[in-house]
Batch of 2 targets.
Target 1
Amino acid sequence: MRLTGKELEIMNVLWRSVMPLAAADIIEALPRRKWKGNTVHVMLKAMQTKGFVVIDSYIPTGGRRAGLFKSAITPEEYILSRLPDFGISMRELQTAALQGEEQKDQSAEDSSALEKGTKIE
């Protein structure tokens, strides 16, 4: 599943927070957006249905209760879930990472050899 641009903005707020947040906290964290509480609630409900957020607990607010939301996935998990959208398999990602490590190791060996004045093959 994919997050919309607006949902991703909310997820970034939740990912940066060390505590679960109420809709009002999310609105406050995004001051350039002029979202109303109902708008954020509708988006959070959709994100909950998609499995991206969960209600951690409730707090009393006036005569009602407000849900405190937290992310159900990490940013890394979300990025990995999107790889197929770009035609990248997990195996291809692992192969590329390993090749990058090998190149980094070779570069470190070459630098060490240059410092010692050894010929690089």
Target 2
Amino acid sequence: MSFSGGKDSAVLLNIVRRMYPHVKGVFVDTGLEYPEIRDFVKTFDNIEWLRPKKSFKQVLEDYGYPIVSKEVARYLRDLQNPTPNNEQSRSIRLTGYNLDGKDCKRYKLPDKWHYLIDAPFRISEQCCKIMKTGPLVKYEKESGLHPIIGIMACESGSRTRNYMKFGCNAFALKNPISRPMAFWMQQDVLRYIKENDIPYCPIYGDIVENEKGELVTTGETRTGCIFCMFGIHMREGENRFQRLERTHPKLHKYCMEKLGMKEVMEFMGYPWQCDCGGCTACNDRCKEPEEETNEKTQGNQRPVEGVQQEEA
């Protein structure tokens, strides 16, 4: 069973092991998980840890940044890397028509993202394939085991279409797969955790009811890869990178400065600094500049905190 350490896969692992206690869990240690997620995974027995061949930094350098969505990033990768071999797909991405004039608007890049074609950085969806899917495919081939995964159709348009085409169990595919939670909603996941009192990662905070009577988490709503920018444009209010500066300042500093994400976020017009007004980062930015004195040798500056390097 593919086990990410997130709340969805925690529910799936609980369901599966109630019926088949000895099913192995497989965790891909990409180096991009929240520290709390990795610690949570360590609390389970019979979990095999896999690792990708490249670090996230190497993937960014070789392919580009994951922004907007997998589909949009895929289209932008085509448009940013013109070759004779992708002339057909570039025509479709730009105009909605192939070279023969056939209507292919379903695969056209939305106009609002056209400005990213000439962005001063490369864009790609390849990170998921290299960091996560690749190690799992290799494990499946070598072990002969087929995956049970906790994805849900409600999470994206592509997953909805996949569910409509194959259902929960696609056993007839070349690579059989089971998705028993494909028809679940997020409310189902949170309700299952509450009603069955199963353990879940503390990064999510508490599960409480909001004013609409819906179950919500007081911490993160989704975990996944810490530095992933997919879906950042859909978030209302504080985004994941603003929260990251408050909750994990060293990781925030690393991704913004060492991975170059500050420039990407600013180019797209999205905030990347916390603005809660009460955390250490906000307070440090709001401090009045100290008056200059002649005592410049007192050493008042706080040393810059180091960042634990991303695991290779």
